Amino acid sequence: MRSVRGIVLGLAMAMLAVPAAAVQPDEMLDDPALEERAREISEDLRCLVCRNESIDESNADLARDLRLLVRERLVAGDTDEEVVDFIVARYGEFVLLNPTTRGANLVLWIAGPVGLIVALGVAFVYLRRRGRASEPAESLSAEEQARVDRILKG
């Protein structure tokens, strides 16, 4: 019983580890070279419905439309860059799984490391000030110590 369950679990994990290609046979181009170019382009385009899946992996209708659009542009004679530029012009840079590091995106690329550096600086200053605050104060004078003793005795 245990070995059967282990085998089934192993097969299920193996199936999940293999990315599912959602490209349907009716979408594929007859020219193998063009189909290969279409697959390479599709791997770098984000499905706008599924977010972090490429259009090559997604079963969403919009992903299918984008795959067909990529293939139409290739058949029309566009270069790979022209196809990607066409898709980006229509859907914005969000459609790229690996966004560019130009323009407004540069702010997004820099914001993470800058935020980390600022947070580390704030933590360092906080810990230094906290360390200084915990240093023992000057000891009490004899008069102050006598007054504290009287207060504590009641």
From TrEMBL:
GO terms for cellular component: plasma membrane. The chain crosses the membrane at residues 106-127. Residues 1-22 form the signal peptide. GO terms for biological process: cytochrome complex assembly. It comes from the Bacteria. Belongs to the CcmH/CycL/Ccl2/NrfF family. This is Cytochrome c-type biogenesis protein.
